[in-house]
Amino acid sequence: MTRSFADRHIGPDDTELTRILDVIGVDSLDALATAALPATILDGSGLSALPPAASEHEVLGALAELAAANTVATSMIGLGYYDTLTPPVLVRNLLENPAWYTAYTPYQPEISQGRLEALLNFQTMVADLSGMDVANASMLDEATAAAEAMTLLHRASKSKSSRLVIDTDLFPQTKTLLATRAEPLGIELVEADLAANGLPDGDFFGLIAQTPGASGRVVDWTEVFAAAHERGGLVAAGVDLLAATLVTPPGEQGADVCFGTTQRFGVPMGFGGPHAGYLAVRQALARQLPGRLVGVSVDADGARAYRLALQTREQHIRREKATSNICTAQVLLAIVAAMYASYHGANGLRAIARGVHEHAVAIAAGLGAAVVHDTFFDTVLANVPGGAEAVVAKAKSRGINLRLVDADHVAIACDEATTPDHVAAVIESFGTAIDPDADTATFSPIETRTSDYLTHPAFTRYHTETAMLRYLRALSDKDIALDRSMIPLGSCTMKLNATAEMEAITWPGFARLHPYAPVDDVAGSLRLIADLESWLADITGYDAVSLQPNAGSQGEYAGLLAIRRYHLDRGDTHRDTCLIPSSAHGTNAASAAMVGMRVEVVKCRDNGDVDLDDLRAKIADHADRLACIMITYPSTHGVYEHEVAELCALVHDAGGQVYVDGANLNALVGLARPGRFGGDVSHLNLHKTFCIPHGGGGPGVGPVAVRSHLAQYLPGDPLEAGSHAVSAAKYGSASILPITWAYIRMMGAAGLRDATLTAIASANYIARRLDEYFPVLYTGENGMVAHECILDLREITKQTGVTVDDVAKRLADYGFHAPTMSFPVAGTLMVEPTESENLEEIDEFIDAMIAIRGEIDQVGAGVWPVTDNPLRGAPHTAASLVGEWDHPYSRETAVYPRGLGHSRAKVWPSVRRIDGAFGDRNLVCSCPPLEAYES
C-alpha cells in the first residue's frame, strides 16, 4: 500500500507508536487525548472545512495551477520592492538547502558558527553601505524597521517632546506603520516636505527622511539633519543600499539611525516577503539597538568565536520593559542578501547600480520635460496631466506594471532585471519615441560617494561559483540543523519542513510578484490566501484571520491592537490593563506595553497552573480597567490547564477580552479550538505548527485570528492611511504561504489530528523515561504533559555544580542540539520532540541524556572536579585534542562519549565554549579586520 504524506511526516510508525503508548500507559491515541486534555475543551467538530488529504504530486500540481493563475509582469512599480536576479549558486545551495533553512536561532553559538558568521557579514554589509557604525542582524521589513527607528529615537533623544517629523516623500506603507505604532504610544507625527521647506516650527524629538524618496528624488540631507540636531532632535533615514553604492549615504550626512530593506540584494519580491529589513546606528546608540546583534568574542581556548551579543535585551528577560517585541528576525533572507553582496563584491554592486541608474536616465531622457525631478537613482516621476491612467494602461498592455501615483503622475522604477527593451516599451507607453541623441546632461549626477565599502575579505574572496559554493558548504558544516539532528526545543516546535512543502517558494509564479501588483495579476495567490484564511479559521475556531503579521510578535501586536480599538470604539477608554501569567512568553508583556497597556502579573501555582484565586483578586482590583488577559494554551509550562474555561469566563464577566497565545497550537490542532473554548483572539505561528522553517531565526509568519466582534479591527492595507497595518505588505510574507498551504492540504484533517496526538505521545514518552534522571517539573491531571516537558536540574546543580549550560554544551559532543534552556523556569531544560521524530531518534536523545546524567553523577561523586570534567569542558573541538591533554578525563570520553563504535555520525563543533561576558564588554559587531585573520 502506498504510504500517505502524513505517514512520511509523522515519525513513529505503528510499531513504534505502540511502544510509546505502552510506556505512557494508554492503549490508543484517542485514549491519550481523553487522559491529557480537559473534557470541557475537547472539540471533535474542528477541521470540517479542510479538503481531503492529497499526495505530494497532487499538491504540487495544484500549486502549479495557482502559480499559473498569477501573471508575472515586468514590475516597475518600486516603492521599496524590486525585481532582482538571485545567483543560482545561492538559490540551490542556500535558499533551497535544508542545512540553512531548517536551522534554529543561534542561541547555542558553538554549533551555530556558520550562520553567525554569515549574519556578521550582513551586519558589516549594512554598516558599510549605510555609513553607520553598527547594524543589527535583520528586522522584519522596511516599514517595521522604520517603526523601530521611531521608538529608538524617542528613547534616546534628550528632548521631552512627543512630536516626530516625517518627510512627505517617505514610502506610503512606512507612513502607515509609523502611524499604527505611534498612536498607542502618544507620539504625534508631523508631516512636512523637508527638502523644499526645511524643518517645521515647534519642538520635536526626532526626524525621519528617506533617500531615494518614494518619488525617486535623491536629496542631500546634510543641512536638514544638522538643523535637526541643533534643535535637539535625532535623525533616522531610510536608505536604499544599492543606491548607497553610488550616492553619499545618510550615515555620512549626519544620520543617527539608518533603516531599510535588503530585498533587492537577491531576495525575490514574493508578493511582499519575507525580506530582511535592517536597522543601523551610530556607536553611541549600539546598546539601545532592538533585535538581535551578532558579536565577536573568544572561546575557552582563546580562539575568535561569534555569538548573539547583549542578550539581556531579549524579551523573555525584560518583558514589559523591553524596548521592542521583536522575536523572530529574517535570518535566512539576511544571509541571502549578505551572500549576494559577497558574490558580487563592491565593484559588482557598483556596476549593477550604475546599470539601474543608466536605464532610469534613458527613460528620463525619452520623457524630457515630463520628468519632475532632475536628481534620481532608479525611479523617474513623470507629470502627464490627466493622462496617468492611460499611460499605465498602455504599459500594462506591453506586459509592464508602472505605478499610478495620481491622475497626473506616473512613477517608473528600474531594477537589476530592467532591459533596454523595457526602457523602450515604457517610453512608447507615454507616446514618445526614443531619441537616440537625447541630451541627458540636464539630469544631475548622483555618484557622490567617495568612501570605500565592502573591503573585508568576506566580500573579496568569493566572486567565483566554486569559491562561493565551498564557502557556503564550509559555513553550513559548522552548524547543527534539522538535516543532521533532532532539535528538541520546547516552545519552538522544530518539526519537519518537507521538501514538497518548500518546492514552490522559488517558482517565478509566486516569487516574482510585486506586493502592489494589479489585483488581476495575483488571482492564484489570492485564492491560496483565501484557502489558508478559511482553513486556519476552521482549525482554531475563530471567525476571521489576517495573514499580514510577518512574525509571531507582530501577530501578538495586531491582536492586542484589535482589543484596544474594540474597547475604544465602545467608549471604554479606561480599559488599559492587561493581565499576564508569570509563566508567559516574554513577548506578551512587551507587546502589551507597545499598545499602551499596563501589565499586571498573575501568579502561578506550584503545579504551574494560573492561580485562579490570584486572578480573581487581580480582576477585582482592576475590574473597571481590565482590557484583557493573555494566556498561552497549553501553558508555557507544557501542561493542559483544566480550568481554562473558567479562567476565560472570569475575564469575560469582568468585561475583558481573552488573548490565547497560539505558540503551543501544535498540541491543539484537531483536538481543541481556542476560539471555541473562550478565546477572543489568538496569533498563530506558521513557523512552528504549520511547517514554515525557522531558517536560523526567521522567516516567521504570525497570522492573527479573531472572533466576529473583533474582525473589523484586523490590520488593513498598508497603502491606505488609517488602516492600522502591522507589516509593509497587505499579506505579509506571502511567498512562503505555499508551505503551510501544502502542509495542510497534504495532511488532511485526520493527518493533522494524528500529528498533534503523536507530538503529545512523544513528549509524554520522554517525560516518563527521563523523569527518574531529570525530574519533570510540571504535569497535569493523570500525570500527563502536553507536547513538551520541563526537566528540572536545579537540585542537581545544587548538589553537583553542573548547570543547564553544561548539559546543553555537552549535548553537542553527543551530536544533539540542546533543548530550550532556563525558560520558562531558570535552571531547567524544556524538551519538545514534535511529531516528526521517529522513536529511534527520540531514544538516541534519551540515551544521550541518561549518559550525561551518569557523567553528572561522577562529578557529584568526586571522580571529576566541578571545574574540570567533560561537561564543563564541553563542547570539544577536533583542535582541542591536539597537543598536551591535562584533563582528568580521556580524549575519547571528550569527543566520543558513547564510544568509537557508536553508529551516530560525529558532529564536530568548530569552537569551544564561548565567553559571553567578554563579548559584551568588548562589543565588536562587524567583521574583524584582516589583521585578525592573519594573527
From TrEMBL:
<dbReference type="GO" id="GO:0030170">
    <property type="term" value="F:pyridoxal phosphate binding"/>
</dbReference>
<dbReference type="Pfam" id="PF21478">
    <property type="entry name" value="GcvP2_C"/>
</dbReference>
<feature type="domain" description="Glycine cleavage system P-protein N-terminal">
    <location>
        <begin position="7"/>
        <end position="430"/>
    </location>
</feature>
<dbReference type="InterPro" id="IPR015421">
    <property type="entry name" value="PyrdxlP-dep_Trfase_major"/>
</dbReference>
<keyword id="KW-0663">Pyridoxal phosphate</keyword>
<dbReference type="GO" id="GO:0019464">
    <property type="term" value="P:glycine decarboxylation via glycine cleavage system"/>
</dbReference>
<dbReference type="InterPro" id="IPR049316">
    <property type="entry name" value="GDC-P_C"/>
</dbReference>
<dbReference type="GO" id="GO:0005960">
    <property type="term" value="C:glycine cleavage complex"/>
</dbReference>
<dbReference type="GO" id="GO:0016594">
    <property type="term" value="F:glycine binding"/>
</dbReference>
<feature type="domain" description="Glycine dehydrogenase C-terminal">
    <location>
        <begin position="755"/>
        <end position="876"/>
    </location>
</feature>
<dbReference type="InterPro" id="IPR020581">
    <property type="entry name" value="GDC_P"/>
</dbReference>
<protein>
    <recommendedName>
        <fullName>Glycine dehydrogenase (decarboxylating)</fullName>
        <ecNumber>1.4.4.2</ecNumber>
    </recommendedName>
</protein>
<feature type="domain" description="Glycine cleavage system P-protein N-terminal">
    <location>
        <begin position="456"/>
        <end position="716"/>
    </location>
</feature>
<dbReference type="InterPro" id="IPR015424">
    <property type="entry name" value="PyrdxlP-dep_Trfase"/>
</dbReference>
<dbReference type="InterPro" id="IPR015422">
    <property type="entry name" value="PyrdxlP-dep_Trfase_small"/>
</dbReference>
<dbReference type="InterPro" id="IPR003437">
    <property type="entry name" value="GcvP"/>
</dbReference>
<comment type="similarity">
    <text>Belongs to the GcvP family.</text>
</comment>
<comment type="function">
    <text>The glycine cleavage system catalyzes the degradation of glycine. The P protein binds the alpha-amino group of glycine through its pyridoxal phosphate cofactor; CO(2) is released and the remaining methylamine moiety is then transferred to the lipoamide cofactor of the H protein.</text>
</comment>
<comment type="subunit">
    <text>The glycine cleavage system is composed of four proteins: P, T, L and H.</text>
</comment>
<feature type="modified residue" description="N6-(pyridoxal phosphate)lysine">
    <location>
        <position position="688"/>
    </location>
</feature>
<dbReference type="Pfam" id="PF02347">
    <property type="entry name" value="GDC-P"/>
</dbReference>
<dbReference type="InterPro" id="IPR049315">
    <property type="entry name" value="GDC-P_N"/>
</dbReference>
<dbReference type="GO" id="GO:0005829">
    <property type="term" value="C:cytosol"/>
</dbReference>
<dbReference type="GO" id="GO:0004375">
    <property type="term" value="F:glycine dehydrogenase (decarboxylating) activity"/>
</dbReference>
<keyword id="KW-0560">Oxidoreductase</keyword>
